[in-house]
Amino acid sequence: MTVFPFNDDWAYRQPVGPFAGAFDGDAAMSAVRLPHDALRDEERRADAPGRGAGAYYPRGAYTYLKEFEVPLEWADHLVRLELQGAFRRAQIFVNEEFAGNRADGYARFFVDLTPFLAFGKRNSLRVEVRAGEDSRWYSGAGLHRPVVLHVDEPVHVVPDGISITTVRLEEDQAVVDAATEVANAGMTTQTVRVRTEIFNAGEVAIEHDVTPVTLAPGEQSVVRQRFYVASPELWSPDHPALYAAEVSLEGRESGVRSSFGIRTVTVDPRKGMRINGEKILLRGACVHHDNGALGAAAIGRAEERRVELLKAAGFNAIRAAHNPVSVAMLDACDRVGMLVLDEAFDMWTKFKTPYDYAAEFPQWWADDLESMVAKDRNHPSVIMYSIGNEIAEVGTPHGARWARRLAEHVRALDPTRPVTNGVNALLAIIDEVPEIVEQLGGVNAAMADGNVFSTISESSSATARIEESSSVLDVLGLNYAESRYSGDAEAFPHRVIVGSESFPSQIGRLWPMILENKNVIGDFSWTGWDYLGEVGIGSRMYADDADASGQLEREFPYLTAWSGDLDITGWRRPASYYREIVYGLRAEPFIAVRRPEYFGVEIVSPSLWAWSDSVSSWTWSGYEGKPVTVEVYADAEEVALLLDGSEIGRARVGEALPMMAVIDSVYRPGVLTALAYRNGIEVGRTKLATAGAAMLTARADRNFLRNDDSDLSHVAIELRDASGLLVTDSDREVSVTVSGAATLVGMSSANPATTERFDARTWRTFDGRALAIVRPRDVGQAAVTVSAEGFADVVLELEVSGTDAQC
């Protein structure tokens, strides 16, 4: 098998002509390197059909075009196109002949180009995609994940045809099976020898086997080989050891390589989840697929950076919400040591938005599950498959039939991993909610604990109606239904539960519940990383806001959900440090300060997805002598607050939230110190200092890049004083220019409500920060110049090295 990256030398435009997409016409063409999101650069409008769910982006339809040479020597080969994600309802044309299609915008799929190619000539490729009102979040549109060209001899290893599993772990060895699918597309019977070599992390061959297989014309067979790896390094989040299997057909072209990890996964209601026999609790982050300023483009380095930063913030697991995760992100999770709950669907047969996947689900569900499992089964980071999220049908008998069908199909494809489903019990019985609320004594009684989801989810009706669909799962995922944890342990003693979605503001209350209930294997917060769309669900709505309507989503120009522990630039928000303390991963207290301009202003319809409107800063020019609220997060009983060494406040921890103390004071510049006490003894301290005059700074996370489709440099632009303190109260316009062998592909701040464009070169900082994303385009030197009025320019030098030629 020969595999070519196929992401360069594309162009895109909007469809044109009476038969849209069939003719070039005079539509403007733009050159592009994939992965790419065409919708990102459209104009956002307050009257966009999808409104806040889609971040006020319009509908979009796009034509992607590429020409490429097809050598004459390929005439006796199979030529297939792998599209890792084309959003959405993609159609593929080769030399203007229809070659294939796919409904799901997140499914990886293959299209056989062979019948349509002109060998020894230049060929054309056209991909049509469209999106609009088909998601509850910002979806993007286009070839948002990589494209790969596969060229195979008639007898070949099938794409995705290698499956590697850990059979058992012993004291001195691991037993590993490799099952390889080999196909014969030729006209004669062939006998080939399948050679498989196992390499360790140091690229040393440690095991091999050679097996003959005879294939008649048109036949496909599985070759099974068993390996005994001595003294194996086991894959785990703390030790992500990787091996590689290289499979080749002796005497033929190059082989196929797949990385894997040696590890086992088990779950049970008494011992929880175990990786290699050791118990682990999932400290999980739900994540959407977009990459902030890149839109939906799943460029490898952006995916890797997200995984690295989420792990550094204390998470050990991500939940793909609500679609299969990209190959690039799975590769990163394997390398970094991040567990993955991989999710297939956000809907089955019932629509959530007017034009969503529900219309195609009955025809495509099996193919899409097969695609997900084939793509992901060799990734050790993937520990669980989810067949859905908040599926309305799970509360009906026929919905339970669907759940069983999906779960059993996944098990047939991969019996080594548990199957789950993210169940929102309230939505499953939505038709009964008015009656249940009345039985509970009205809306106020139902909202007694502030979480009507949880109150209704533990009702006897919810228990009865989700029982059958839950019984088909290995692990029941519960969204916002922690009230069921202890009761289900008694009522369903064999049921294993994961908190598949939870309010971020409640982790201080939820984590002790998870520690106490052996049947619960962890929690996934909504969300770990902020995302585009579902705008403002995590914002604080104040009484004097222009759109203070009490509605969950906010009005234009809101852009992001504003519910992530990390914002869209990757900066940790105060909630992230609170979570780290709750998890027991951080001993040092943390200080956050609520924005003083809102002191005493009423909050309208507070959202449980929201954290306080706070910043870790003691720099508030113009608020000297005015009241301010300080939050201190600490695993302690009491907190004292000092300003320049003099105590200005003291409070018990836990009155507002567990492990939080809230102190009202008056803002004065200086050094603010928080002391945490337990039993009257100091157990930790931290401080914030008022920043001085701002200076413009810029720092690239990578100064050496490869000229390929997966690499990026993220440039953090910050206003800092001479001592390095972040200056959060002096925001201004910052411009970025990139010259040489790279280009600026995205820029943003973390501002959740802005009309600024991701393709612009100027943004206003938000709380002292902005982010520029630079992508290589050639080999050589590149310069990134960051400028702002009143500051000296900052110039960063980047070096771009060569890589293998693209096709």
Automatic annotation (TrEMBL):
What PANTHER family does the annotation carry? BETA-GALACTOSIDASE, BETA-MANNOSIDASE
Q: Where is the Glycoside hydrolase family 2 catalytic domain?
A: 271-424
Keyword Nucleotide-binding attached: no
One Gene Ontology term of the molecular function aspect: hydrolase activity, hydrolyzing O-glycosyl compounds
Domain (Glycoside hydrolase family): residue spans on this chain: 696-793
- Tell me which residues make up the DUF4982 domain: 625-683
- Name a single GO biological process: carbohydrate metabolic process
Organismal lineage:
Bacteria, Bacillati, Actinomycetota, Actinomycetes, Micrococcales
UniProt lists the family membership as follows: Belongs to the glycosyl hydrolase 2 family.
Q: What Pfam families does this protein's entry cite?
A: DUF4982, Glyco_hydro2_C5, Glyco_hydro_2, Glyco_hydro_2_C
> Could you list the residue ranges forming a coiled coil in this record?
none
Q: Which residues form the Glycoside hydrolase family 2 immunoglobulin-like beta-sandwich domain?
A: 162-263
Q: Which named protein is this?
A: Glycoside hydrolase family 2 protein
**Recorded superkingdom:** Bacteria
Tell me which UniProt keywords the record has, alphabetically: Glycosidase, Hydrolase
Q: Which InterPro entries match?
A: Beta-gal/glucu_dom_sf, DUF4982, Galactose-bd-like_sf, GH, GH2_Domain-Containing, Glyco_hydro2_dom5, Glyco_hydro_2, Glyco_hydro_2_cat
Give the organism, scientific name.
Microbacterium halimionae
